[in-house]
């Protein structure tokens, strides 16, 4: 692949990733003023990892952790966000949507980079949140996990394209 073709693929990928700013999450900013977007979420997690990395267990590869945090929600560009306390059926559907989204998004990159980005993606959604009391009911662990006014936590926030 020639350098101009490679660069064009990378720029196309980056411009597509800019759409992460438009994916509204089901969680709110710490001041509860509005829902955060997925780009803000990923940036803030990466910043926290870099700031608090000294408290990680010895041997933790903080560069790898930061890469994971910066890329873990890129698939939401196509799959949307789903609240962590959503019912298991919705979690399963989201996992499939995210796998499809990863293939679609990372296919924009040159093959060697696509492979790297695929390797950074989780294989499935996390297990149900430990604070979830029962199906359809949950207990927020922090104010940022609380839904906004009249917002159901189990409702997916899909911004599907």
UniProtKB/TrEMBL annotation:
Keywords: Hydrolase, Metal-binding
The HD domain, residue ranges: 17-120
Composition-biased stretches (Low complexity): 145-161
Region feature Disordered, mapped onto this chain: 120-161
Keyword Hydrolase: yes
Keyword Metal-binding set for record: yes
Source domain of life: Bacteria
Classification via InterPro entries: HD_domain, YfbR/HDDC2
Protein name, entry field: HD domain-containing protein
């Amino acid at each position: 692949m020639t350098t101009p073709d490679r660069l064009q693929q990378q720029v196309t990928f980056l411009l597509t990733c800019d759409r992460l700013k438009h994916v509204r999450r089901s969680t709110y900013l710490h001041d509860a003023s509005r829902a955060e977007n997925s780009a803000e979420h990923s940036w803030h997690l990466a910043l926290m990892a870099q700031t608090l990395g000294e408290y990680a267990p010895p041997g933790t590869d903080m560069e790898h952790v930061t890469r994971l945090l910066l890329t873990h929600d890129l698939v939401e560009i196509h799959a949307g966000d789903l609240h962590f306390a959503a019912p298991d059926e919705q979690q399963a559907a989201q996992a499939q949507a995210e796998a499809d989204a990863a293939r679609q998004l990372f296919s924009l990159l040159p093959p060697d980079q696509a492979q790297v980005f695929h390797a950074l993606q989780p294989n499935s959604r996390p297990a149900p949140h430990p604070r979830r009391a029962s199906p359809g009911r949950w207990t927020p662990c922090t104010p940022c996990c609380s839904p906004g006014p009249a917002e159901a936590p189990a409702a997916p926030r899909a911004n599907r394209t």
